[in-house]
């Protein structure tokens, strides 16, 4: 009996029924006279999710990785210098991409488990008197380690240094789930993907671009065509696209934006925090440690959990999948075999997450990790249940 | 954010993805030349689920209640005497229906929480020397109290009394989930519905009829037309129906039968037992009691749980729904307000059920029932997790 | 390549995307606190479709045939006399049902191809001085012959005779497609099904009941339970049902009502008339005759077309299905082999219908019926295309 | 009443039900242990569609335009010379992309309405004694003009010239619909998209690469990362992907391949030819001309039709959409306003296409183009219907 897989990887995330239905549509004519009315509404509402009024949002058929590439090739020229910190697999990969695309990277080696090293950024920026650094890259939420960084602090560092470099943010696993403020934080390029907080299948690279970045695009000499902002901007202006758009996903995006707005962005963030906190209490009850070394970096979308020495997290994840039909995230690269991850973003509530915690407990116990069955669940429940007497009294009618 | 409702009522049950997809089809021509090939396969495979080779299965657009009516009106005449026991809301309602359809009911008043009183049946049958009783009715699985009865024992009682009455079984919440053996147990009429073990939406009354019952139908004088066996049999012979069938559900039924056969019926029963046992251990860990008074009556499809005095199960169920988006079953009729029910049938696995148990715990705690959060989950996990050291060693690679 | 079947039988009809999506939902808790809000809206809006403010609408899991039975068993007693005319297979079958349910039928034998013989009804009513006739039955739209009858005239006949009998209307293939006015025409019981004008799958019997009929139900002695109005009325009052409802179809019904109201009922009727008229012009261009003998009986939901002598309509329908994947309706009973039918109701537009007409032409030509390819299409197009010069001028910008 | 849009643009094409259902799935874990078994089957079967045993197929989240870019950036270095002909909007755009990606293009200006000018290619290749041309690009099926070119002849030209340049083919609107033979024609890079012959939504760039091209990739110096073949090859080897794949589309692709294989590729091509021929006969009957100037270039996937002087094809297309809910293709670039297009590829049969032809006739007539209603339909029907007396005799039973 293949019951439904319990999907708790940090993306792709579970698709809400309303979004599945919205995507289960016949193909449509992307040049129809009434198509622009539909698409222009998407662009308008996406800006609210990025919290930008000045910026412009582009939608490419592609994945978040394509969004990274779009950000770099549209605004930089080969040989341009970028400043970036590596403190997890995804921040590492973006740096790798920079190099492969011909950019010169000033890389800060951060610690896996810590947030972006703002002070190191600040030092490098201060040192860069002649402003050779064109762009500062940061990963808002490092999915590999479950660490959220302080983008606002990085903006303050740039300002403190009086440095004109643009600020590029990988928000793939944060935007639409964790508070992100493009305009307030002075972000020039923000990259998101459809398959995380937007609760859609993979297939849309979503890139928000500031006016400054758009202006920079005019002079950038990196070759690009598929991901070209200018082509998009020209066609998008009238609600069309320079080549065939992924209309099915656009229809799903409409439903996604309606759901996000219906719940309210701040409420979405609060819900993620509330749910994540339950997971963290479970981890503590198990006597295990998060990869994230300090609460200020705790990610509300993914928790990376360190196994005790001698246990293999790949085995754990495989066993959870095969025995309990529960998908957890493996540890990646530096933390492979040592860390497993619980994704807790997108469409999610307490009951779903408690099932996953219970399943993780059984899998941990099965492979011999000395935890007490039910302990994590109880700790999470204590956080989720109505704690205050007056609330309980109300529930009691 | 309306995440998905956690549906743990004792039917309708959760629909597997494969069945949902199978039903998401355009309407079709129920007189098409290739339609019979499809429908004849359904009848063939349904017989396997009822474990009958001699009987015939009919599919009416309707609910299980319609199946009850079909069984009665096709085979009995007004004034005919039937013997039936009432020991829960559904066994009670079937008796009520008998009376409303003009039958004379010899009703045995059983205890809610106990199984069908086989000895009382035996006595009445023994007393009925001139065989005025035409039919003996029994509810295999009483959904209101979570009690499964011993149909084979009832057959033995009939045989012991040398009584020729036909045996009618309400198998709505057992068939396809709990072992049911039409031919072996000498059942003449068995009623199932689409929305329980078949994992479909409500809308099909599924009635299996023995040769003896079909023969009886010829002489039965109750008026019927919509639910007439003879009309069905005549059209079904060639794979058609006397009036427009619910083809969408028939397509789903094909997927359902494929799933049941793919897993294997015995494995399906075993899985239900395995999952149900976890729920029962949770209830014990909470210090609560099942409505079912003895383990031999424990239902593997639904557990009815008694709240301590002073607590209102309607409030509990409402709170679970409103606060945790968890649907539990209320107590019905005699046990309204005192009992709540967890349905554990159909598409289900450990993770899903642990989420429901965890949710029930929070709701119980919230309304003040003195249970320990996590205690039920831990007890169920202890049953579900790999207990034996050698199994754990295998999991550990 | 199984492309989509072109479904042009007179029901089930093509399901609009919006309705398919609305039904592609998880199962739900039919006792949830917010369920009544949903269902009460359905009852409210259904009354608008039946054009009744006084009547009450019931929804049974079942087919239209079940609706017929509900109407009869709730309001009549065995031995009661009903007056009904047979002028096609469906009017015939309802009469048959009356007899099987123990009613005494005064049957008027009408002509297949003519509407309900209002004058004969009038005569019988006038003759029935002591008002032994309790109910007058009529089929509003006879699906077998493509004939729509004048229900208002039948009401006038009743009134002229000063006859107190109740008026029962089979509106299965008319309601929601052809104008029907329950209150204005003094209809006491109107039966519809989900799979015609409501554009849903088969599975809901929809019965509208006048206050007078509800009052009659109190005294009616026919046995009934599944289809009992009183049980329904009691539970429906609070938005619930006496047994598990077919919630999937109810969700679809919501979408159906939204579509009907969105387009506007009068506009729906007008569209059906407009489309049907194109079919009729095609038939004339082919040199064939409709089964309906006079334009005043032309049905806007189905056209029954008579083949020239020597041709077999079963062969035609089978060939169209196998060669062109086009489903047409066969001739039934008296007109089997001589008539084929094109259903043109529900979700439909000119392009879809022209495809069907073109397909019917090829199939007719293939089996040797001497028609000119394209002739019917051209005639329908001439009706559908913008005929007036000023309209064409507007289209020409 | 929004009935279903009749979609007859040359892509995206209508999605078969089986594919829609296959894509209506929950998100899945792209690192699950059983994921590779699924994906490796896709790669294996895709090779059959491209008719290659030596080549390798890559699947990028993106559109066909992304496939073009992948082909160029993986195998060429800035400044490399390519030879390409422009004879329609899509062949033109690929040349434009080459230039924007830093390649030096030797462009042949072909005629819109003619196929790829093989002789001109041959001359240029003969002239290129020192083999500066690294790659020869050709558009197999020019979607803007409805012209199919002779790729085999281009291969012969390369061979005749003894020229080592690689052969790149844009097969976006031909592959899986029109015969394409990668190995036999010595094609090094073939680009397809999901939304044409594969009958999927937009979102997959499908690129087949010969061994020679893969070897060339090792030395190519164009910057690329998202579309990098080597990253893909490394991960694909084990059935995984270098970044999150669009699993929903992959599930749909499985169904698409099953359908293509079930019908048989040659049968798919034959069906497209059969259907297209009907459209061409309709155009002739209207007295209009195809954009394609000679039958040897007739495209079996799209017909571009030239309006008589004085008529505006944009108006026609808009009117067809707004009045008849029929989506036709507009004329692009050089032929904007003068040409409209009927896409006839993917899931399609005679009835669907006759509906579109009938709709196009009405729209043409409405805007004043002097055509006879029904004439095109009749011509197409004459091609589709059973012409031969013996076939008709068989149909007649």
Give a short synopsis of this structure.
Four copies of one chain form a homotetramer. The first copy, chain A, is an alpha/beta fold.
Tags for this model:
4-stranded antiparallel sheet; 397 residues; homotetramer; alpha/beta; 43% helix
Could you walk me through the main structural features you see in this protein, from its secondary elements to its overall organization?
The structure is a homotetramer of 397-residue chains. In chain A, a hairpin with a 4-residue loop joins strand 6 (141-142) and strand 7. Chain A has a seven-stranded mixed beta sheet, with helices on both faces. In chain A, strands 11-12-15-14 form a four-stranded antiparallel beta sheet, covered by helices on one side. A two-stranded parallel sheet of chain A has the order 1-13. Helices cover 43% and strands 16% of the residues of chain A. Chain A is globular, with a radius of gyration of 22 Å. Chain A contains 14 helices and 15 strands. In chain A, helix 1 (17-23) packs antiparallel against helix 9 (247-263). The first copy, chain A, has 397 residues and is α/β, with parallel strands linked by helices. The two termini of chain A are 40 Å apart. Chains B and C meet through helix 3, helix 9, helix 11 and strand 14 of B and helix 3, helix 9, helix 11 and strand 14 of C.
